[in-house]
Every structure is written in C-alpha cells, then in structure tokens.
C-alpha cells in the first residue's frame, strides 16, 4: 500500500484511504477512546529533538524543553529520558518535572512573576538556574535564598529589542513587552546581582518570541546578547552559560521555518566567529519539539448549511483547541477517511457558546455527520492551554509508539471538573 505523507507532519500519512500516525490507524483510536482525542507520535517528538541534538553535536549545550508547550507527564518523561532539562514558568511545572522523573539540576525557571513560595521550593529542589526578569525580582530572590542559607544561581533575561516578526501576542523581545531587562539596564542589573550575597550569577538569557519562521531575528538577537556578554565580562562578572531561549516555528500552513540543525549551524558559526563557541549553551524550545507531533481527533456532530456560512459542528471546541480563538491561529483540518468528490466550504466550529469558538474558517471539506476529522499541528499549546469552559471535561491523550498506543491521560469526567468544589 502506498503511504501519502502529509507535508510538514512527520509520521502522519494516509495509507490507502485511512489516516495513520506511525503505525496506528487513527480511526481505531477514536472508536476506542472517544473524541475529542489528542494523539502524539513519540517518533516525531524524538526526531524533532534529534534535529537540535545534531545541530549541537560536539558542543557544550543543554536543551531545556519549554514544557508550557505540552506538559503532560509522559511527554516530559520522554524528553527527560532523552537527556533534556526543562524550562519552567511556575511551581506547578516544577512539580510536574519532578513527578515525571526529570532532573531538577537541569531545570531553569523563567517568568516575570515568580512568588516567594515558588522560589523557595525551586531552591530546595536544587534547580539549575533562575532566569530573572526584573531588578525587583533580584532583591526578592536574594532574600529568599539567604533565608534558606543558599545562593540562588541566576541568569538575567535581557530584552534584545529585536522584532521576531511573529504574532504580537507571542512576540516577547521588543521594548514594549513585559519581558526581560532593557538592553540599556543590563550591565547595571548584573552589577547589582553580583553584589547580592544570596545570588550567584551564572548566565545570561534571552527569548524573543514564538513561532519564529525566519533566521534573521535569531542572528540579530545573538549579536546583541554577545555585545552584552562582552560588556558584562569586561566589568569582571563571569558568565558560565548563554541561553538563547526558544521560539523556532513549525509548519502550520505551508510555513517554512529553518530546520533546527540548519539554524544552529549558522548561529554556531557566529558564536565561533565572535569567540564564544566554547561557552556552555542552553536553549528553551517548546513548540518546535512537539507541535507537529500531535493531532486532535474530533467527530462531526451536525452540518448546518446557511445563507452566508456553512457550519460543520464538531465535538472539539475552543476549550480543547484555544489557539484559533486566541490568536486566529490556523490549524489544518483533514478527514480521517477522505470521501470522493468535491464537498463544500465549511466553518468548523465547536459546541461552546461563543462566536469565537471556531477551529477553522472557510475550509474545503467533503464531510457528513459522524465523520472523523483530525486537527493538525496540535501537539503544542493545545492540551496545555485547554480549559473546562462550559464544564467540558478535558480530552484524553494517547502517545503512539510504532504499533502501540499508550493512554497517557484519561478523559476528564464531569465529576472531575468539579471535584475541588463544595456546596454551601
Ligand atoms: N522560553 C520562554 C521564556 C518562553 O516564554 C517561551 C514561550 C519559550 C521558551 C518557548 O517558546 P517556543 O519554542 O514554544 O516558541 N501560546 C502561544 C505561545 C506562547 C509562547 C510563550 N512563551 C501559542 O499557542 O502560539
């Protein structure tokens, strides 16, 4: 049987008229576990990681998976076993890393609003580095560390003021963003950090945005960060590592981000040229490790043709797949078993009571009630951003490995959704 690979979707292919992820027929999973259902390919995740590992071969580099992209325990376990550390942004994420068997020493803690309790727990767990985002945070971290008789390892997140050329909600490296320390304040902030006895300066970091599909913002940001490294070290403060953040985009709809290894060949050439090739490097990729490794399966509940719009109402919704509603993001939607013939043009929408609850607009699909569809590129920022809005239990998750399908999260029941609540 000839397999027809879907562009940009590793491990996803039609065999005959049926969609498979690795060697598992997706319709079988939908029937067995119900819909909506997230299904991830282990091989696709490991292949995405391998591209970075190839890029860094022979270098001192630590990949810290930005787990906000998909923080399901089995996914974390997979990356931990493959040698990854983790970029976390909350105490909750730290607990997940520990529950999944991750190594606290390889954890870096990002985010503009760490609480004292989160700092304390992270220090007690022995995380590798705090990526500090403000001068006020330095003072608080210093106090918390001293109260524990510890020195907190810190890196300062600098804002290189480069345009990542991505959606404004996911662009973080510009002056108007809440993230990082302004370029001009960096040296003074490092001097302040170095003078605090509860802190130990270990690195510098930046992150300029997400779903970046061009090389130039990375190359520009690297130049600016290296200028800062030079200035900081000239002032007598040694930086053990340089962390370039995450942000590499994926193919949602014909997007053509550079492959991770090709991008890093260029970035490493620049590092070498500027004399920093031997430095310990860190990166924080999220989306590019998991985004194209997953799909969300959904069933067509009703077809509702109209005068202006035809609606294809499915059982997945904005609570499962929030990206279209939040960012007008595009996810391809394909049938698990394509029907012959033309079909119509449909807005694919969910059951949630909001006009913003759409998954795809004006899609050419030949569908009938009861058909199964796959929303593609759903491995990143879908389940991790899912909610219980409309008291919809969150979907189940499957990790496929060859012919095997592992249930890694059972479907939430209605009782699960209100288990924390009490009546008066
Ligand atoms: N490091 C830091 C400090 C970050 O803030 C982020 C993402 C990452 C790393 C990972 O970036 P990635 O490699 O995944 O692009 N919910 C949005 C994306 C938000 C990204 C937030 N920060 C979306 O669905 O597009």
Secondary-structure topology with pairs:
Layout: E1 3-5, E2 12-15, E3 18-21, E4 24-25, H1 26-33, E5 37-41, H2 42-55, E6 61-66, H3 73-81, E7 85-88, H4 91-99, E8 107-109, H5 116-125, E9 129-132, H6 135-147, E10 152-159, E11 181-182, H7 186-194, E12 199-205, H8 216-234, E13 241-243, H9 260-273, E14 280-283, H10 287-290, E15 294-304, E16 311-314, H11 323-327, E17 333-335, E18 344-349, E19 358-365, E20 372-375, E21 396-401, E22 404-409, H12 414-417
The protein binds ligand LLP.
Descriptive account of the structure:
- The chain has 424 residues and is α/β, with parallel strands linked by helices.
- The chain folds into two domains: 3-41 and 291-417, Beta Barrel (Lyase, Ornithine Decarboxylase, Chain A, domain 1); 110-285, Alanine racemase (TIM Barrel).
- The chain is built from twelve helices and 22 strands.
- The chain has helices spanning 26-33, 42-55, 73-81, 91-99, 116-125, 135-147, 186-194, 216-234, 260-273, 287-290, 323-327, 414-417, and strands spanning 3-5, 12-15, 18-21, 24-25, 37-41, 61-66, 85-88, 107-109, 129-132, 152-159, 181-182, 199-205, 241-243, 280-283, 294-304, 311-314, 333-335, 344-349, 358-365, 372-375, 396-401, 404-409.
- Strands 5, 15, 16, 17, 18, 19, 20, 21 and 22 form a nine-stranded mixed beta sheet that branches. It has an eight-stranded parallel beta barrel with strand order 6-7-8-9-10-12-13-14, surrounded by four helices.
- The chain is globular and about 70 Å long.
- The N and C termini lie far apart (61 Å).
- The model has no long low-confidence stretch (mean pLDDT 96).
- The structure holds ligand LLP.
- Ligand LLP binds next to helix 10 and helix 11.
């Amino acid at each position: 049987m000839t397999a027809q690979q879907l562009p940009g979707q590793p491990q996803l292919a039609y065999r005959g008229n049926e969609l498979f992820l690795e060697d598992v027929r997706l319709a079988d999973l939908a029937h067995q576990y119900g819909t909506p259902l997230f299904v991830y390919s282990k091989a696709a995740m490991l292949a995405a990681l391998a591209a970075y590992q190839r890029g860094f071969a022979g270098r001192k580099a630590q990949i810290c998976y930005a787990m906000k992209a998909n923080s399901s325990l089995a996914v974390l376990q997979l990356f931990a076993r493959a040698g990854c550390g983790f970029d976390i942004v909350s105490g909750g994420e730290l607990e997940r890393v520990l529950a999944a068997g991750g190594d606290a020493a390889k954890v870096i803690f990002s985010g503009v609003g760490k609480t004292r309790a989160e700092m304390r727990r992270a220090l007690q767990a022995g995380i590798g580095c705090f990526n500090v985002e403000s001068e006020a945070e330095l003072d608080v971290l210093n106090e918390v560390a001293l109260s524990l008789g510890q020195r907190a390892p810190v890196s300062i997140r600098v804002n290189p003021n480069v345009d990542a050329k991505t959606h404004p909600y996911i662009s973080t490296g510009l002056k108007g963003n809440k993230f990082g320390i302004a370029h001009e304040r960096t040296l003074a902030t490092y001097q302040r950090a170095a003078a605090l006895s509860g802190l130990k300066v270990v690195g510098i970091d930046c992150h300029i945005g997400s779903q970046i599909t061009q090389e130039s913002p990375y190359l520009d940001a690297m130049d600016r960060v290296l200028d800062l490294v030079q200035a900081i070290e000239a002032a007598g403060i040694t930086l053990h590592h340089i962390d370039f953040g995450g942000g590499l985009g994926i193919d949602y709809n014909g997007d053509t981000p550079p492959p991770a290894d090709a991008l890093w060949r260029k970035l490493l050439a620049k590092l070498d040229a500027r004399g920093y090739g031997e430095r310990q490097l860190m990166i924080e990729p999220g989306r590019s490790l998991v985004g194209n490794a997953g799909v969300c399966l959904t069933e067509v509940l009703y077809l509702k043709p109209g005068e202006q719009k035809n609606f294809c109402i499915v059982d997945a919704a904005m609570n499962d797949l929030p990206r279209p509603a939040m960012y007008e993001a595009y996810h391809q939607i394909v049938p698990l078993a394509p029907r012959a013939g033309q079909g119509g043009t449909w807005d694919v929408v969910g059951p949630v009571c909001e006009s913003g609850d759409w998954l795809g607009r004006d899609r050419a699909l030949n569908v009938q009630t009861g058909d199964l569809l796959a929303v593609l590129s759903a491995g990143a920022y879908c389940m991790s951003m899912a909610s219980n809005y409309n008291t919809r239990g969150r979907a189940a998750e499957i990790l496929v490995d060859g012919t095997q399908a592992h249930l890694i999260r059972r479907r939430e029941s209605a009782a699960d959704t209100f288990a924390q609540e009490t009546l008066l």
